[in-house]
From TrEMBL:
One function term, GO molecular function aspect: formylglycine-generating oxidase activity
Domain Sulfatase-modifying factor enzyme-like: 12-244
Pfam families: FGE-sulfatase
UniProt keyword list: Oxidoreductase
Transmembrane regions listed in the UniProt entry: none
Gene name per UniProt: egtB_15
Name this protein carries in UniProt: Hercynine oxygenase
Broad class of enzyme this protein falls into: oxidoreductase
Length: 497
């Protein structure tokens, strides 16, 4: 199933409706009708509200807090159950759809599963769309007559669950909204609309589940097939549910926005900069220009960060191992590799933020990604398996190590004869409080200046020859939309003797 509304769609839509997401929907069975008040009564009579075993942890916490005994709109009177509508209370219509929150719907599914030995759950968003396609549900305003109790075309309330049939199923559209198992998130390609930047993104937290299909009172955008409204799982709407049975395990795709400031700023530095100011793009260009025979080389990137250099080089090398000291950083390029996109939040000014999304295909770097392997490791204490490389790249890693001199003294052991070592550094040893005895340069030795490049040369000279001339690349680091740091990194190439 392809989900998402194209930008040229003739109907208005909120920003969360746009983008493209493709999901392979496995076979499933669905209840022909929505669960009725009469069916839900069995759950109540079986003391379902009193047994934690049927509830999720969140659901049981809510149930205990609210001291819930039945759905919110139900009333228990001396002559039986009644239902509260918008303007009146009526004797319980047992063949109307029950209106509950997600937590109650999920508890009913678990109770039904326990009683029957079958596995029941709610549909996912993609399964609801599959059901709509199967039943050939027309989109508004294509219908002459609504295909269900929707758009205020028939009733001012719900109606019996066996009233509106489309193909094999009832109430695919209308009567009451239908809770799904899917927490809302943006589709790949989602972009925040500047006119209502707080409409969708605050709900992309894994705590707001989608409701689909509209209700009797849904009009306009709410009555369209592409509408995507989501609410906290304990909220009430005019919403009910139908059951789904499937042998496939439920997989929920959670694509939150990265809020770790260090990681998000790294994403912006590597993926949000233009080609003219992107340090990693420029470094990749320099490597392709200076190093011959890249396509036969086994490459090691010692500072993967959020992965830009690895993706830039992948089409031009034989294989590439990209390491980073922190798993916080490499999970972002792994997400790009596996899902094709990633999201993060960076500061605009003060309390204002930007919501960013990177779609790998849009960058043109979605080719040969299988050549890359991202791993966590410490460049100052590498495992023995990281050896036998034709090219090792150390981009801005020396100034992050506890002892750069130790690294430089031993790196030759991991490079093949005739292989290359490329170092890029701003030589800022004080930023991370590197001890003076561990610094390769930036001090006076025997009364004479010892530059960092001089010191690196001394440490490498026994095993490497210096190739060409040093060059400088600018590296910009995002703090907010008004403030960026600029570093000048010296790039040097060394060849193993």
């Amino acid at each position: 199933m392809e989900l998402g509304k194209p930008l040229n769609h003739p109907l208005y839509g909120w920003d969360n409706e746009y983008g493209t997401y493709i999901e392979n929907v496995k076979d499933f069975e669905a209840s022909q009708m929505l669960i009725s008040n009469g069916e839900f009564l069995q759950f109540i009579q079986d003391r379902g509200y009193e047994q934690s075993v049927y509830w999720t942890e969140e659901g049981w916490s809510w149930c205990q807090f609210k001291q819930a005994e039945m759905p919110l709109f139900w009333r228990r009177k001396p002559d039986g159950y009644w239902l509260r509508l918008v303007a009146e209370e009526i004797p319980m219509p047992w063949n109307w759809p029950v209106e509950v929150n997600y937590l109650e719907a999920k508890a009913f599914c678990n109770w039904k599963s326990a009683k029957t030995g079958q596995t029941y759950r709610l549909p996912t968003e993609a399964e609801w769309y599959r059901l709509a396609v199967h039943c050939k549900i027309p989109d508004q305003p294509a219908w002459e007559k609504a295909p269900g109790n929707i758009n205020l075309e028939y009733c001012a309330s719900p109606c019996p669950v066996n009233t509106f049939k489309s193909g094999d199923f009832y109430d695919v559209l209308g009567n009451v909204w239908q809770w799904t198992e899917t927490p809302i998130t943006g589709f790949p390609g989602f972009k925040v609309h500047s006119m209502y930047d707080d409409f969708s993104t605050p709900t992309f937290d894994g705590k707001h589940n989608l409701i689909k299909g509209g209700s009797w009172i849904s009009t306009g955008n709410e009555a369209t097939l592409h509408s995507r409204y989501a609410f906290r799982r304990h909220f009430y709407q005019h919403a009910g549910f139908r059951l789904v049975q499937s042998d496939e395990p439920l997989v929920i795709q959670d694509e939150p926005y990265e809020t770790d400031m260090e990681v998000a700023n790294s994403c912006e530095n590597l993926w949000g900069q233009s080609a003219q100011t992107n340090f990693h793009q420029q470094l990749a260009n320099a490597i392709r220009k200076e190093i011959k025979g890249l396509n036969q080389m086994k490459v090691l990137d010692l500072n993967a960060d959020t992965g830009r250099l690895a993706f830039e080089l992948a089409p031009y090398v034989k294989e590439l191992m990209a390491l980073d000291f922190s798993a916080r950083f490499i999970r972002m390029p792994i997400r790009l590799q596996e899902r094709g996109f990633m999201r993060y939040i960076v500061r605009d000014e003060n309390d204002l933020v930007f919501y960013r999304e990177v779609v790998l295909a849009d960058t043109g770097l979605d080719k040969d990604t299988e050549k890359i392997k991202f791993m966590q490791d410490n460049a100052n204490n590498l495992k023995p398996i990281y050896t036998g490389y034709d090219l090792i790249i150390a981009p801005c890693i020396l100034e992050e190590l506890s002892c750069p001199k130790q690294f430089l003294a031993g790196i030759h052991q991991r490079i093949n004869e005739g292989g290359y070592l490329i170092i890029a550094s701003d030589y800022d040893w004080e930023r991370n409080h590197i001890k003076p005895e561990c610094r390769p340069g930036g001090f006076k030795k025997d009364g004479e200046p010892m530059t960092s490049l001089d010191g690196i040369g001394e440490l490498l000279s026994a095993h490497f020859s210096f190739e060409g001339n040093p060059s400088n690349l600018f590296k910009y680091e995002w703090l907010n939309s008004r403030t960026q740091l600029q570093r000048i990194c010296e790039v040097t190439i060394w060849r193993k003797k």
